[in-house]
Inverse folding.
């Protein structure tokens, strides 16, 4: 009898707690409370601040949440969706793609299509362009761009996704996030993540607004007390120039080992101040020169978007507010250049070896 009475008491207490937590969850959602504290010294994308979009990953640090189909205002205006791979776009039946040429576009928010509709990002425009002008067959393009990604993450993403996607071509465009200062002077290659089991628990709990609220408060208190060691004169970047070269070269080598054609793309920069050569522009050119060096030394096909965009300010909406992300016209230009390269290469192979 005592045991039954004890179990009833425990169950009643649990029920009361569930009601309290449920009420707190509802109130926080209705109130729209969000006490997060943005911190530029951490890794560029703090996934715990944007759990509607990202989930934590032990190898990739973060990845896009899978099977999202809703409206948000952070990444893109209006509707936004991801598939079961956690890639931007609709669901793809890989078994039905046996006769189609597959292209995976690896990159950061520029490839993802920051503030652009899905069809207007250059992977979407590339698929449309190829299937419109090509007489050599059908193409499917995977948008493997993830906001905040560096070439370090891109190399790992390529190796993780290649066995499933099995692309015939891979376009590679990184650079901006590589050149940002690492959080607490920690380079990407030295970042330490918890085990995936613990990260999965955090990913699940992050769907709760109450959990977010408590976590944000604790983080805000902890971070205000912590002394930052960021050295503005000689910061440690997320990916050094040498490591950037090594990552790009490793991607090229891996693609060729898998029978994939790699294509490098330089990352353009909008001219925010035509009268001056700004420090970030000077340093960004070093990263683009590294892309050119890899392309020349390893004989890789190249789209030098950075060189072209300097003569096309119309490829940006307003470089004073955003000199990184180009607009629909800029994305269409990159798509057209990639389409020409791929279509010409495929036609050449057909002429040489037949269908």
């Amino acid at each position: 009898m005592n045991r039954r009475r004890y179990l009833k008491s425990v169950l009643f207490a649990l029920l009361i707690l569930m009601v309290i937590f449920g009420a707190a969850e509802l109130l926080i959602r209705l109130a729209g409370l969000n006490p997060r504290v943005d911190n530029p010294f951490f890794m560029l994308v703090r996934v715990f601040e944007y759990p509607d979009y990202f989930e934590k990953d032990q190898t990739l640090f973060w990845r896009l949440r899978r099977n999202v189909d809703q409206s948000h205002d952070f990444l893109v205006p209006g509707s936004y969706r991801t598939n079961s791979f956690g890639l931007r776009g609709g669901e793809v039946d890989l078994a039905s793609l046996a006769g189609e040429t597959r292209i995976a576009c690896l990159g950061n928010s520029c490839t993802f299509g920051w503030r652009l509709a899905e069809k207007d990002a250059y992977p979407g425009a590339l698929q449309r362009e190829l299937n419109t002008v090509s007489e050599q067959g059908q193409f499917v393009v995977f948008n493997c761009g993830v906001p905040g990604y560096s070439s370090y993450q891109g190399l790992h993403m390529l190796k993780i996704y290649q066995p499933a996607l099995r692309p015939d071509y891979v376009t590679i465009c990184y650079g901006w996030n590589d050149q940002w200062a690492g959080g607490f002077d920690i380079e990407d290659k030295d970042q330490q993540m918890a085990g995936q089991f613990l990260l999965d628990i955090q990913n699940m709990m992050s769907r709760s607004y109450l959990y977010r609220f408590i976590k944000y408060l604790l983080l805000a208190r902890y971070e205000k007390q912590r002394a930052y060691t960021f050295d503005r004169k000689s910061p440690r970047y997320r990916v050094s120039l040498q490591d950037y070269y090594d990552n790009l070269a490793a991607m090229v080598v891996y693609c060729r080992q898998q029978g994939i054609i790699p294509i490098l793309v330089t990352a353009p920069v909008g001219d925010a101040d035509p009268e001056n050569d700004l420090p970030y522009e000077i340093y960004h050119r070093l990263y683009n020169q590294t892309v050119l060096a890899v392309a020349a030394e390893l004989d890789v096909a190249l789209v030098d978007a950075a060189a072209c965009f300097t003569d096309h300010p119309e490829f940006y909406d307003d470089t004073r507010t955003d000199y990184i992300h180009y607009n629909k016209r800029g994305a269409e230009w990159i798509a057209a250049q990639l389409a020409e390269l791929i279509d010409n290469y495929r036609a050449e192979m057909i002429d040489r070896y037949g269908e």
Summary: The two ends are 80 Å apart (CA to CA).
